Amino acid sequence: MIFNTEFENSDQFQVSISDDFEPLTRPFAIARGVTLQPGDYDFTNYEVFYRLGAQRRFSGRFSIRFGDFWSGENTAFGYDFGRIEISPQLSVEPGYLINQVKLPEGEFRTELGRVRITYTFSPRMYFSGLVQYDSNASSFSTNFRFRWEWAPGSELFLVYSDDRDTSPFGDPRSFELRNRGWAIKFNRLFQI
User: Fold this and answer.
1) Per-residue pLDDT tens digits for 72-98
2) CA–CA dist 105, 39 (Å, integer)
3) How many domains does the chain have?
4) CA dihedral 157, 146, 142, 80 (to 10 degrees)
5) pLDDT of 168 over the 60 cut
6) Which of 151, 161, 170, 179 shows the smallest number of beta carbons within 10 Å?
7) Taking a C-beta distance cutoff of 8 angstroms, is the pair 144, 162 a contact?
8) Average pLDDT rounded to a whole number, residues 17-46
C-alpha cells in the first residue's frame, strides 16, 4: 500500500507499507557472525520519505524505514538521490544509508556512504568521480570516468576504478588494495 503526494513545488511525501515473503532453503550468512537458518520468512516494512524537488539547488530524499526483517527487525535512516548544484558545470551527489538490524541470531549495523562529483566541460564532455564506503563489505572504492563525444554517436570513455579493504577502518595500514582497473572504450558511428 502506498500513499504519495506531490506538492506544487515538486517536493514529494510518501508513506508505504509492504509485505514480503522470503524462503531460505539453506543457511544464509547475512553479516559477519550472523547466519539465518532455513525456513519461510514473512515480514512487513513501513517507510516514510520526503523528497526535495529536482529544481532546487539542494535536492534528495530523506527516509526512515522500519519493521520486520527476517527473524527480527530493522530500522533504516537515509539520505539518497541527493544532488547539490554548485554551478551549472559542477554538481555533487551525496548519499548515506544506515541499517540497524536486530535478530535473535545476532545484531549488526551496516552503513553505505557515497559521493559522486560531476564536472561538465561541455554538453559533449564530462568528468565524473564516485567514492563509496560499504561497511558490510569492508570496502572503500573509487571510480573515475571521463567521457567525450567527439562526433555525434562517437565517444571515448576513460575509466579508472579501485577497491580497498577497510577492516578495521580506523587503521590506515588496513587500506589494502583488493583490485584496480583501467578501461578505455572507443565508439565510432558509421553512417551508410
Assistant:
1) 999 999 998 888 888 989 999 999 999
2) 14
3) 1
4) -110
5) no
6) 170
7) no
8) 91
Whole-number mean pLDDT of the chain?
A: 90
Predicted confidence (pLDDT) at residue 169 exceeds the cutoff of 60: no
- pTM, entire model: 0.76
186 located within any domain: no
**For residue 157, what are the CA distances in angstroms to 4, 92, 114, 127, 188?**
39, 21, 22, 10, 12
Strands (E) located in 70-175: 72-85, 90-103, 106-122, 125-134, 139-151, 154-165
Instruction: Give dist(CA 77, CA 112) in Å, integer.
Output: 11
SS3 172: helix
Structural domain harbouring 20 = 1-88
Contact 142, 129 (CB under 8 A): yes
Residue with cell 578505455: 184
Residue 43 has pLDDT above 80, yes or no: yes
Neighbours of 27 (CB within 10 A): 10
Q: Do the beta carbons of residue 167 and residue 176 sit within 8 Å?
A: no
Query: What whole-number distance in Å separates Cα of residue 13 and Cα of residue 8?
Result: 12
Half-sphere exposure of 5 (CA within 13 A, CB side): 4
Q: Is residue 131 part of a domain?
A: no
Amino acid at 124: R
